[in-house]
Amino acid sequence: MSDYHPPIEDMQFLLHDVLGFQNDDLDRDTCEAILGEAAKLASEVLASLNSKGDEAGAKLEGGEVKTAPGFKEAYAQYREGGWNAVPFDEEFGGQGLPYALAFPIQEMWQGANMSFGLCPLLNQGAVEAISHHGSDEQKAYYLPNLIEGTWTGTMNLTEPGAGSDLGLIRSKAEADGDAYKISGQKIFITYGEHDMAENIIHLVLARLPDAPDDVKGISLFIVPKFLEDGSRNAVKCIGLEHKLGIHASPTCTMDFDSATGYLIGEAHQGLKYMFTMMNNARLSVGLQGVAIAERSYQHALAYANDRVQGKSFQTGERVAIAAHADVKRMLLTMKSQIEAGRALTYEAALALDNGDTAKVDILTPLVKSWCTDMACEVTSIGVQIHGGMGFIEETGAAQYMRDARILPIYEGTNGIQALDLVFRKTLRDGGKSVKEHIDAIRCDNFKKYFEALDMATGALLKAGGDKNLDLASAMAAPYLRGFALIAAGTLLQKSLVGLEGREDKFATEKRRTIEFFNTNILPLAKAHLDVAISGSGIITA
Fold first, then answer.
1. Same structural domain, 114 and 169
2. Bridge partner list, 151
């Protein structure tokens, strides 16, 4: 198993030399020091538990979940180091650091051990939801412990038979004095039960007796595992899923049997409130895609440099497979897309910090969808580079592929992300926001790609104007793929400016990586957009 080395140099380059990150309290050296400390925990503690956790998994015993060996101790080290508090409000014990710095830190947790990193990811969403929509009393009681990490948070959305159609959920909430009694069953609840924290705060979607039908009748409730008096609430884990990957992350079926819950905000506004968590989590899931792809790349590169097989065409000597053209192509395919995805994700983080909601709205489906599809491709290539040994679990390459496969599915499938880009971000305002974003990133060097993006956007708007929503829906996925490739490519082009005057190893490799992306990956953008325009009609015929 290869070591994990957080790519701090590329993180720093992106923040300071490409994206223009500026903060009076966080100069380049200070960021370097913070990232360096995070890297120690990621590489020395979390990464060493990754394969062990995959093998051992989480265990359900008598309604209690025991996490994989070492996870509880690692979480305590993570929490005691103050890492859980990084991006949160100082009023409630957070460190108040910008997301532009929090994302590189979080990339390390996910790259080192994605099963571990899922716990703070879900907790972050719970903090965001309560911060934005909770009462002052709820904020004062729940946020300090959630931010410190003494407690962790969950999202309880879907139910058996509902899937992504939350209008079908049937969990009930009945008034009980100042509280409510919550009854129902929730599935696919990440870290719904575990032994790493003192309390688990469930955010649960449920219906009041007078609720309207469909999604308009959903309310959001806080349902703690332990109540304020220390008593155990009537919520328990009744099953753990047996999954393709992320074995050490407990994915729970949760049963609520008249459990005590507390309404967040107004009744029937739960879906709107939950999207505060969802949108935050979608960017974080895109970041997971970058992280797991990076880990897979490092693993494949180490193997390729070590594995001697075949002869050089030039010397006739046996060489490591990293010297063969096809392996070079695969490694550059991995590296170039990872660096493009990292740039796109960090740009979204910077937009979050700057309060640029229009940019965040457009980047969210691009980041979540493209970066997670990319992760599946890259981790699959990682297995391919290992050859037959990649198909054997002992080499570790397969775990990254298995772990990555969940990413295009959860927090809204990538098909849903594409529909979000088309209907909520493009057609809703007649293309105004999307066109403004395209014009803002327009790059003269990519003229033919932007012409293709303009044409596809126009075709999409025509389908919407003609009320041919099935056609617009069919166009969505290839449109998103083409859009994302172009958006990521422009950031790589911007990177060339940050490299001016540099001739060191990092700069030389970066230039080569960018050239490879421009000549081997970016051309696919035009193909995707051509498919959106010309190939979508057959789907709805």
1. no
2. 199
Domain limits for position 251: 152-272
What are residue 483's phi and psi, to 5 degrees? -60, -45
Residue that is written with structure tokens 């998994």 in the block: 57
Residue 274: which pLDDT band, with cuts at 50, 70 and 90? confident
391 located within any domain: no
Cβ neighbours for 490, distance < 8 A, ≥ 6 positions apart: 441, 442, 443, 446
Tokens of 453: 């993006």
Q: Report the catalytic residues.
A: 411
98 inside domain: yes
* Same domain for 13 and 139: yes
- The answer to whether the CB of 186 falls within 8 A of the CB of 229 is no
For residue 367, being part of any structural domain is answered with no
Residue 424, C-beta contacts closer than 8 angstroms, at least 6 positions apart: 361
pLDDT for residue 370 is more than 70: yes
Torsion angles phi and psi, residue 178, rounded to 5: -85, -5
- Domain containing residue 18: CATH number: 1.10.540.10
> Over pLDDT 70: what percentage of the chain?
100
pLDDT confidence of residue 1: 62
Summarize pLDDT for 138-162 with one digit per residue, the tens. 999 999 999 999 999 999 999 998 8
pLDDT at 349 over 80: yes
Q: Given 133, 148, 163, which residue is the final one in a domain?
A: 148
Please tell me whether residues 139 and 37 are part of one structural domain: yes
End position of a domain, from candidates 272, 293, 315: 272
- CATH number of the domain to which 213 belongs: 2.40.110.20
**Distance, C-alpha 481 to centroid of its chain:** 17
Residue among 220, 231, 115 nearest 169 (CA): 220
Does residue 12 sit in the same domain as residue 90? yes
**Helical packing angle, 505-516 and 469-498, nearest 10°:** 150
Instruction: Based on the fold, state whether residues 116 and 166 are members of the same structural domain.
Output: no
Asked whether residue 375 is assigned to any structural domain, the reply reads no
The count of structural domains within the chain is 3
Is 370 in contact with 488 (CB distance < 8 Å)? yes
pLDDT tens digits for range 404-459:
999 999 989 999 999 999 999 999 999 999 999 999 999 999 999 999 999 999 99
Of 55, 43, 19, 16, give the one whose Cα is nearest residue 32: 16
pLDDT class of 278 with cuts at 50, 70, 90: confident
- Extract the tokens encoding 70: 């070492």
137 and 159 within one domain = no
Tell me, yes or no, whether 525 and 500 share the same domain. yes
Nearest alpha-carbon partner for 342 in 118, 30, 15: 15
Q: Where are the beta strands (DSSP E) in 109-250?
A: 151-156, 172-176, 179-190, 199-206, 219-224, 235-240
Per the prediction, the chain carries an average pLDDT of 97
- Strands 179-190 and 251-263, bridge-based pairing: antiparallel
- Pair (428, 518) in one structural domain: yes
Q: Where are the beta strands (DSSP E) in 264-392?
A: 308-311, 318-320
Q: Residue type for 259, please? A: A
The pTM (predicted TM-score) of the whole model is 0.97
